[in-house]
Design brief:
By secondary structure, the protein is an alpha+beta fold. It is built from 14 helices and 19 strands. Helix 1 (14-23) crosses helix 12 and helix 5 (103-110) packs across helix 6 (112-121). The radius of gyration is 22 Å and the shape is globular. The structure holds adenosine-5'-diphosphate and magnesium ion (MG).
Length: 406
């Protein structure tokens, strides 16, 4: 099978997916705005060819350039695990008459209002919602939906430009803050815990699924610098209290008509136990999520994804989940360069068997912008068979591991 992989070098996990495709026997051709020599070695060494285009987002120009390439007509599949490239992938499929999501099926993955309309029609519980462009439309939508509500970009990511409006008197301030966003989704605010439902699917059949729990809720994690956000990949994905989310997850895959690949859904669990839809991406979750899923069951989900693409099933199968696995993101105190890391030796001395990875910035390195990247100033990955112990250690890493910058 010959697979055209869009953006094989970026974001971070793409070289691993690219390598996995090659490792199950696919011939992989890259397509991206990075020249072949600038690609990470892992991607460069596994690609049999690479189509270097000027601007990845000028879809017409990219398709024209691709068609000039001799290998283009021999491609069997087009894959893109980076959300902004999903529409380009769909257009290439349509041009080359290839299987996989077309533009009509891709649009609801990229437009949060179209997404919820599809799901409403399937009877799935979404927050009350409305699309709005002008200030007038935003005010009317707020009036219709009531308070508290959320205003967020129609195609946002990473909680950017997402605001809660608690009551009518806060609306003016928030409207001003998101005035630069062309089109927004105005939504009923859902109070609850936030979880994911991630799958590897082939021809609409779910071959693998995962549920992770965000601690705290992403919007809070993005508003309070001093905390250390956690994603907890749960061992007991089949537990009763997550049943409503699992059922919703399956129904959403069906309603969206997703075919083959990775999906990443987010949902809320209210205090009454009701599941409410959040959003879905036709791509894997980011920010180390696939890594912690691998740690939860000693799996290689990069490989499982590639098997789903090439063979339509996961040959490596689903292993038993023996652990909860978590990633804890750290933010330094102060600005500038990292000067001191405190508490790490102690944590490793006491919890060395639970801590799987330490990926903090080193002393002397410049702090990252925590608002721009959830990775912040680095992270630790841990795992434990017991959920309580997992949470306790994640919290301990949150409070006792400290990075100082100046
Ligand atoms: N209707 C809502 N009710 C409560 N919180 C919300 C709602 N919509 C978004 N949020 C908060 O904002 C975060 C980001 O919103 P989301 O729709 O997931 O967009 P993004 O693509 O930025 O992740 C969510 O994880 C949640 O914390
Ligand atoms: Mg989200």
């Amino acid at each position: 099978m010959r697979v055209l992989m869009i953006s094989p070098g970026f974001p971070a996990d793409m070289p691993r997916f690219t390598r996995a495709l090659a490792s199950v026997g696919a011939e992989v051709i890259g397509l991206g705005d990075q020249p072949a020599e600038a690609l990470p070695a892992m991607a460069r060494h596994t690609l049999s060819d690479h189509v270097h285009v000027g601007m990845l987002w000028d879809e017409d120009a990219v398709i024209a350039e691709l068609l000039k390439h001799p290998a283009a007509r021999e491609v069997d599949r087009v894959e893109c695990l980076w959300e902004p490239g999903m529409m380009l992938a769909a257009r290439i499929r349509e041009t080359l008459e290839l299987p996989g999501l077309d533009t009509a099926k891709t649009l609801p993955f990229r437009d949060k209002e179209a997404m919820k309309q599809v799901l409403d029609e399937a009877g799935i519980r979404t927050p009350k919602h409305a699309r709005a462009r002008s200030e007038k439309q935003r005010r009317e939508a707020a009036e219709k939906i009531g308070y508290p509500l959320v205003i967020k970009p129609i195609a946002g990511a990473g909680s950017a430009d997402t605001h809660v409006v608690s009551e009518a008197t806060d609306l003016d301030t928030v409207l001003e803050r998101c005035a630069h966003v062309d089109e927004v989704s105005v939504e009923e605010f859902i109070d609850g815990e936030e979880y994911t439902y991630d799958t590897i699917t082939a021809e609409g059949k779910i071959l693998y699924y995962n549920i992770s729990w965000y601690r705290p809720r992403p919007l809070i994690a993005r508003s309070v610098e001093s905390l250390s956000p956690q994603t907890i990949c749960l061992r007991e994905v089949d537990s009763e209290d997550l049943g409503a989310g699992r059922a919703m997850g399956r129904a959403v895959i069906d309603a969206m008509g997703f075919e083959t690949g990775f999906t990443h859904m987010e949902w809320f669990k209210t205090s009454e136990g009701e599941a409410v839809f959040g959003e879905i991406g036709g791509r894997p979750p980011g920010a180390c999520s696939v890594e912690i899923m691998n740690y939860a069951e000693d799996a290689d989900l990069f490989l499982s994804w590639a098997e789903a693409i090439v063979f339509g099933r996961c040959l490596s199968g689903r292993s038993e989940r023996l652990y909860n696995a978590a990633v804890v993101f750290k933010r330094a105190e102060g600005s500038g360069r990292i000067r001191k890391i405190e508490g790490l030796d102690d944590l490793l001395a006491h919890h060395g068997d639970q801590i799987m990875e330490v990926a903090l910035l080193s002393v002397g390195q410049k702090r990252r912008d925590w608002m721009q990247t959830l990775l912040s100033d680095g992270y630790l990955i841990l795992r434990d068979a017991e959920l309580d112990a997992t949470l306790a250690l994640a919290d301990k890493i949150g409070s006792e591991l400290r990075l100082f910058a100046e």
